[in-house]
Amino acid sequence: MNRDNHLLPGFKLGNYNIDVPLVLAPMAGITDLPFRKICKRFGVGLMVTEMIASRAVDMGRVRTERMAEIGPDEHPISIQVAGSDPLFVAEAARWAVGHGADFVDINMGCPVKKICKQSAGSAMLRDEPLVARVLEAVVKAVEVPVTLKIRTGWDDSSKNVENIARIAEESGIQLLTVHGRTRAQMFHGHASWEDIGLAKAACSIPVIGNGDIVDGDSAREMIRISSCDGVMVGRAVQGNPWVLAEVYAALTGAEKPAAPTAEERWAVVHEHMLNLAEHHGVQFASKMARKHVLWYSKGLRGSADFRGHFQVENDWQKMLESAEAYFLGLDSDVQGELADAA
């Protein structure tokens, strides 16, 4: 691969060179270890775990420990923590490093109501002094690089992405990720890549753009508009980790990869299901599979009928057999067909 064709030069973060700045977004209940194992092979340069609440770390829950498990091939990887109390977040950061994190990412972008009610996530953007206190406490608490993920503000009338970018850099944050929506937008409307550009212009640390990256073309367009240093792909990977390979190709100047064949698609689905069972146990894996496997079938021929049967199946072996029959039954020349309205 010719490095001269790279759309972005990459950057150094701690002891790691992020040569291809393609980041998998942390998504609650989705980007667990089983899914990250799948995504890593498609060119992701930086992995981030699901968000872990600092209070949950303090409580020592078994599920929290499982969420922080890191595979041997995932490095470099960041464990993302959230919270509004500087002491608790700093302690969670130390805990993350102790669990193998190469970086600690602080979440100030989650728009979920139960998180914002605790003055955490994107709710913190309304209190810039608190933002500074939390960031400074975490940077002082650990020796690994600390990164930050934000939204552009609480709502359109209070966008402060430039202020937060400056506060982040002054506090010692080494990388900033900006989701180009306000908290009020949730996931509606189109992300403002121009606002990501405002953050980039306001600081000298690397800025990762997030929001509405769905293919190689959208990644290139975000970079053109925002001048960001890397891209983070989120919801587009649900049931479609192959989109990461397309974005990787766009960033590196490689040829756009072909769509997966029926056999290739099933191989990924099958591995994902086995990973879920190994990591979570069959009972919880069955619940997770009803979400992930149905996403894998979205837009494919006969998916509506398959979903109707798969989501009510309770026997794990029968779930595996049902999924295998469906995905291997797809003809490669009709995989792109839209499913019947359902």
What does this structure look like?
With 342 residues, the chain is of the alpha/beta class. The protein is globular, with a radius of gyration of 20 Å. It is built from 14 helices and ten strands. Helix content is 44%, strand content 14%. The longest helix has 19 residues, at 262-280. The model is unreliable at 332-342 (pLDDT under 50). The strands form two sheets. The protein has an eight-stranded parallel beta sheet with strand order 3-10-9-8-7-6-5-4. Helix 11 runs antiparallel to helix 12 and helix 11 runs antiparallel to helix 14.
Strand order of the largest sheet: 3-10-9-8-7-6-5-4
User: Low-confidence parts, pLDDT < 50 over ≥5 residues?
Assistant: 332-342
Kindly estimate the percentage of residues that lie in beta strands according to DSSP. Answer: 5-15%
* Overall body shape: globular
Percentage of residues in helical conformation = 40-55%
* Structural class assignment: alpha/beta
Distance between the first and last residues' Cα: 42 Å
Number of distinct helices: 14
Average per-residue pLDDT, rounded, comes to 91
Radius of gyration: 20 Å
Order of helices and strands: EEEHEHHEHEHHEHEHEHEHHHHH
Number of strands: 10
The largest sheet, given as strand count, sense and whether it forms a barrel, is:
8 strands, parallel
